[in-house]
Every structure is written in C-alpha cells, then in structure tokens.
Amino acid sequence: MYDYIKGTITAVTPEYIVVEAGQIGYSIITGNPFSFSALEGKETKVYLYQNVREDSLTLFGFKTLEERFLFKKLLSVSGIGPKSALAIVASGDAAKLISAIEAEDDVFLTKFPSVGKKTARQIILDLKGKLGDVAVNEIHIEPVKQELTDGLSPELEEALLALQALGYSDRELKKVLPKLKEEKLSSDEAIKLALRLMTS
C-alpha cells in the first residue's frame, strides 16, 4: 500500500493529475485536480489511497492527511464508493462535515453530490462518534496554544489537539473548555462532547 508520493506535477487535467517520480508518471485521481494547478512543474507531496478491484488499480490523491482520513472513513459507509467519497471530501469543510454527522444533520449531508436522504442517514449511522476517535493519530497538527492547555489532564489536551486538527479555532475551543473540565472524561469522550456542544 502506498502512503504518499513525492515528485513533480507534470500535468493537471479535469479528472486527474500526473506526478512524475523516478522517471515514472503516476496518474492520480483527485477531488479537485485544478487545486494543484499552482503546483504544476514543482515538487509536491501527495498523500495516496490505492483502490484495488478485479479490473482496475487506481490511485486517489489528497493534499492533506485530514482529507485522506475522511475519504477512508466515508468508504467504510455502505453505499458509498470511491468517487462519491472523493466528491464529498473535495466539496466540504472537514470540521463542518464532522459536526453535521455528530449533530445528525442529514439536510447538510444531502448537499453533497450523490448523497440522498437514505445515504445521508447511513453516513450518520456508520460514522457518528467514530471520527474524533482517531483524529489525533491520523492528522498532523500543530501544538495547541499553551494558554489553552495549562493545567489540563493529558486526556483533555489530546482532545483539544484532535479538535484543532478538525479545523476548530482556539476561540471555539475556549468556549467549550469549561464544560469539558467539569467532568472526568477520556480523550474520546471529550471529543464527542465538544462536537455536540459546538453543533447545538
């Protein structure tokens, strides 16, 4: 399984980009190939997901680990294939998407291509409470400001890191922090509670 490719982007098409590495050009399908246009001709790191079927082997590419993490989670949902998952990741904000799932907001989810009411409910059923659990392990993040983490338990500090990785600002984290401090929670529990608080 490939984790990433580092090479020169030699072509950007409406459906895929070409990355040349080791004198081989790799065709990589991305949600929005034109987002790579400014990087054409430059060395770039693209995170990969290799999809293997009986009749094809396809590489899907992502700019960030966050995008790939969400893509893989969406693939685990019954009824969602690689193209649908890619379209959702490409057209949505990660924090808003996860918040919508936690809040069971199927109306928000049906705004994505190929997602009807039934599929939206399936996404919520399969993924609610499961996206914050591994965010810290999957997404590279910068440290949370010291002022936010002073005096916190390791569990709460880890939860803040995960929430920051999902796109929440220090200002938003400060709002929910007092509530999180009230109870002794594991990092997973704190993440889930914070997501509920921020979407209520």
TrEMBL record:
GO CC field: cytoplasm; Holliday junction helicase complex; Holliday junction resolvase complex
Q: Which domain of life is it from?
A: Bacteria
**Molecular functions (GO terms):** ATP binding; four-way junction DNA binding; four-way junction helicase activity
Where does it live in the cell? Cytoplasm
Which residues does the annotated region (Domain III) include? 152-200
Per the record, the domain comment is: Has three domains with a flexible linker between the domains II and III and assumes an 'L' shape. Domain III is highly mobile and contacts RuvB.
Please give the subunit comment from the record.
Homotetramer. Forms an RuvA(8)-RuvB(12)-Holliday junction (HJ) complex. HJ DNA is sandwiched between 2 RuvA tetramers; dsDNA enters through RuvA and exits via RuvB. An RuvB hexamer assembles on each DNA strand where it exits the tetramer. Each RuvB hexamer is contacted by two RuvA subunits (via domain III) on 2 adjacent RuvB subunits; this complex drives branch migration. In the full resolvosome a probable DNA-RuvA(4)-RuvB(12)-RuvC(2) complex forms which resolves the HJ.
Annotated protein name in UniProt:
Holliday junction branch migration complex subunit RuvA
Q: Which organism is it from?
A: Listeria aquatica FSL S10-1188
Which gene is annotated as encoding this protein in its UniProt record? ruvA
